[in-house]
Amino acid sequence: MPSDTDSLAKTFNQAHMRYSQYHNEKTGKRGHLWQGRFYPCPLHEVHLYTAIRYVERNPVRAGLVNQGEDYPWSSALSHVKGIRDCTNTGYPAENESFVMRLEGLVLGGKEGCLVPAGGG
């Protein structure tokens, strides 16, 4: 357990700063590389599925793959087809109640949000 409540934010701040310096030196650019600040906070379950959908659709929006589950570094395959990657840490795929809730959801509703299977 971190000793400070902002330990994670401090870690990401240092990592972002060092990578930005490296990137700017390599590309000859100046200024900020990252937009916005890292804000560590737990997600309420109401927002969790929207956040998962957002993250898993990023490779599709970026044009890297046609379907989120085709991106090799995504958890989408596990969530969509229940296929577990042996390199995965096991969370949340090993959390049976979480997986069962995800399996009971489908993309649909307003803006393709996750909604209960069979409607909603």
What is the gist of this entry?
By secondary structure, the chain is mainly α. It has helices at residues 7-27, 45-61, 76-81, 96-103; strands at 105-107, 114-116. It folds into 2 domains: 1-41; 45-116, no CATH class.
Polypeptide structure, described:
Strand 1 and strand 2 form a beta hairpin. The relative contact order is 0.08. This protein starts with 6 loop residues before the first helix and ends with a strand. About 15% of the residues have low confidence. The protein is mainly α. The chain contains 4 helices and 2 strands. Strands 1-2 form a two-stranded antiparallel sheet. It folds into 2 domains: 41 residues; 72 residues, no CATH class. The radius of gyration is 18 Å and the shape is extended.
SSE arrangement:
Elements: H1 7-27, H2 45-61, H3 76-81, H4 96-103, E1 105-107, E2 114-116
Antiparallel strand pairs: 1-2
Protein name: Transposase
InterPro entries: Transposase_17_sf
Organism: Candidatus Desantisbacteria bacterium CG_4_8_14_3_um_filter_40_12
Range of helix content: 40-55%
* Overall mean pLDDT: 70
What proportion of the residues form beta strands (DSSP E)?
5-15%
Described by strand count, sense and barrel closure, the largest sheet is: 2 strands, antiparallel
Termini distance? 39 Å
